[in-house]
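[Meeting: bench + compute handoff]

Bench side (C.D.) handed over the final construct sequence. Compute side (W.E.) agreed to return the predicted structure before the next meeting so the bench team could plan truncations. Sequence as handed over:
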Amino acid sequence: MSSRLVSVLMTQAEIYGLPGPPRAKRLKGAATAEDLANRKFHRLRPNEFWVTD
């Protein structure tokens, strides 16, 4: 569906989106979470591809 069609349908339904692009709020200097699962990401050889489910 094109953005023009979405615009027309939203106008007909009298609904409007939020102004401007979405922005992520980032906290400078905030500590990241610890690795609670004790994962060890070591490779046996270079350029090894990791796959998980």
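W.E. noted at the follow-up: The chain has a mean pLDDT of 80. C.D. will use this when planning the next construct.
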